[in-house]
Amino acid sequence: MRDFIAKLTSTLVAVVVAVGVSGGVWILANLLVNRLRDTSSRATITGRALVGFLIAGLLSGNRLAQFSTVKAGTVWWRAFAQWLWLPLVMALLVVFVTYVAERQSATVRRLGIYVLACGTLGGALAALLNDVAHPRLVSPATYVAPIVCAGLFAGFTASVRKRRRQSAALRGALLGTSAGLFVGAWGFNDLGSGTAAQSIMIGAAVGVCIGAFWALAPRVSAASRFATERRARAAVFLAPALGFIAIALVIPSLRTIYLSLLDRKSKSFVGLDNYFTIFRDDKSLDVSRIGSLITSRLTIAAIVCLIVFVFLAARGKRRTGHFVEFGSASMTPLALGVLFGGFAIFTTLRGTLVNNLWWVFVVTSFSSIIGLLIAVLADGVRLERIAKTIIFMPLAISMVGASVIWRLVYISRDSSKPQSGTLNSVWVGLGRLSTGEGLGKIVFGVIILLPTIGGLLVLVRHLVRREWSRVTMPTAVFALGTWFSLRYWQVIGAGLGGHQFSESGEFTADPINFLQESPFNNFWLMVVLIWTQAGFAMVIFAAAIRAVPRELTDAARVDGADTRQTFWQVTLPQIAPTIGVVATTIMVLVMKVFDIAKVMTNGNFGTEVLANNMYREAFSNLNIGLGAALAVLIFVSVLPIIYFNIRRMSRMT
Amino acid sequence: MSSTMRDSSVTEPGVIAWIYGKLSRVPVVVLWFIVMVWSLPTVSLFINSWRARDAQRSSGWWTARPDSLTVDNYRQVLTASATSDLGKSLLNSMAISIPATIIPISIAAFAAYAFAWMRFKGRMQLFVATVSLLALPLQVALIPLLQLYVGGAHFTLPWLDKTIALFPDFDLVNTTTAVWLTHTGFALPFAIFLIHNYIVALPGEIFESARVDGADHFTIFWRLVVPLSIPVLAAFAIFQFLWTWNDYLIANTMVGTNPNALPTTIPIANLAGDFGRNEHLLPAAAFVQATVPLIVFFSMQRYFVRGLIAGAVKG
User: Fold this and answer.
1) What is the pLDDT at residue A18?
2) Nearest-CA residue of chain B relative to A576?
3) Cβ neighbours of A417 in B, within 8 Å
4) Domain B71-314 maps to which CATH number in 3.60.15.10, 2.30.30.30, 1.10.3720.10, 3.20.20.70?
5) Which residues, given as ranges, of chain A have pLDDT below 70?
6) Of A219, A351, A574, A592, whose CB has the highest number of CB atoms within 10 Å?
7) How much is the ipTM here?
8) Digit-coded pLDDT (tens) for A377-411
9) Is residue B96 a contact partner of residue B179, using CB atoms and an 8 Å limit?
């Protein structure tokens, strides 16, 4: 308990300090900008303080200044404080100098104050340097670099500026001299060969040049001050977020692309070798079974469905003029055909890349369809809220937790023992019922027959009423129920469910090892993600359906459309953009899914996905190049979605 | 379909009409069947978490009897033990989730306000660029970020052959700080997007009149925007809390090797990975881990749903 309170307090203190310090800096920046309209010097002060901060920060960040050297093993926040103090002090001093100097109206006095103070500051900074950081004063670079830079800078500014060219050139020369001195002295020389005195002289010279540069800055007009204020304010509001995004997202992503072109230890450039390694590996893309695609039962089912689709669609076109139409009879066979076809392809081609595509295909479509189904079914039903909450709840559970939950469902035990996993118990129980006899068998058989008969009744009714567009669903239910019943009553085959008979004719359980039997173990992993994401899709779709203007649906009703037609012809087209949003969101999530594969199989038994592969290569096998290449592949695979999002947003605004 | 088809319907005797009437209730049955299937896995986990080790191993959760239940699993999971010190990792999860929720909110709110109500050049392009990063898979940034935390960022100047530190080494690796800093960065595009969607829909007249009265952006932001956008800030807070509490990838990468800084998901994943003697603790551990997000979820569901919808439908 004491541990708990101590940890909680330290966490809260850390948060308060972090928020307080950054908030304070931010508010100060805002207050500075507040005064910009009165006088330009506050903006000047902010900018110049930043310059002082950056120069000192570079020194202390490289542990070149005395007092800022950090021993190994220091706590991170102490190291941070040791880095921070010098830049902060420097920034404050610059603020003071600028404030005093800018109050002088006479240019000469301003120049004097700036040159003296900045020279002193430059010298002081140089005096703080470690012994190892002193450059040589007498070396060609120390003299050549400033002259070259001064010439370049002066020429550049003079050519850019139209008015007051001379003073612009002078300021350019001053800036060039200071930069050249800095780079020439510390960049080109062997550090540590000079003395402190030499350092101080160069530092002071740099300071003098910067001071003179600042002193000669032209005074700005009120109008341009106003514009500066607006820009500065936007910058202050945006800087923290954009800075964080740049450091945490943009720069690392670019670096990952760079790292993917280097070898496993990022030592030498290997070009696209890492990518070739991925694509040549059988584990990534295995097309050796492609021949069996033709004989696969799934392919046959897909072809049959597609033939039925073409037939129905051709009929539909003759009647309504549309080949493909939402809610028409041809939609169910098309959907089934695509589904079977997808499964046929994804179960014959194997490998990490194929698995990822399969994940995207299945999770996106199933989550969206189930979500839409529930949103429609639950709309206006009694206890709607409870139903929706239960469907929605898995979204709050971690993927690790969800994987643990579903392991319980998928457990498979030796056939001699009772099954403790939910699914296998059902599966083996079905086998027991189907092959056994007695009351249980009859009761379950009748329960299955009921929806079959129901399907038949609905089918007959629609046939009698000649409502052709509505016969596919009951037909499917009827056909499925009939097939199931025939198998169950052992009219066809030897009964359903997980069972086999020993030689002596005894019943033995035949459980499915859901997580290890490839390729369908992939599908059982996908179910976990569908379980969590269907709730997400449902919530969004329910809101979108509710947002469809009542006038539209009412008008359709008045025109004689029934509920079904209103949904397919009016509501669905209205929520089409939302379906796009949901699908893309889920796709992005699927591409980076990692936890499920990691926890449930760790990529074994043919269930590897890109994200887990990337983690393994980069952080377990320490092959940075290959890991980065895999990460880039994940990135490339979501690029179309990013493009889609950008287009959508640009259109919106 | 035209209405003529409907008119041609044949009249049916009472029994058949009654059957068809019952059949029209099929959708409700289907709905509750789905709901049952959806809740079953969680229920089974919950029941199993109260069952003794041998019972869990030898029979299914549906065979549980009220008198055979035990709290031993929870006791074992929560008290420090060599295999799973969940108590400590609950604290670590707090130490990650709390800063990772609060800090991005404030940073993102500034940016969202600037994008919504300030006029500057390139505003739209910058906003679209920022928000397009929403879809960036975090794996892409993971390796360089870890390198940054391990040794800072260095740059070797070309031709000069001198290496300078752009980002000093603060020895952040294996600290919870590294985890929440990462979460903060990754959360920002979504946070900006969500809060912007809300702020941009606020009535502009309020801000106009405030500006006429001499208020600057800073004042407007604190006095008007923040109080008005509490709902969306709460929505984002719930999201971010759930996301950081449930995260496994970032935590495993950044602190995976420091047993004192692990958040809850890692010991559970490890427990699930070793298929060993302690597997019977898994349901209890998973349930303890899920308790906090479930409480947050159920108590703030309204905000959560509103935030989800604002993020998807309006966008």
Assistant:
1) 75
2) B313
3) 58
4) 1.10.3720.10
5) 1-4, 32-43, 66-74, 220-222, 225, 327, 653
6) A592
7) 0.88
8) 888 888 888 998 899 899 899 999 999 999 888 98
9) yes
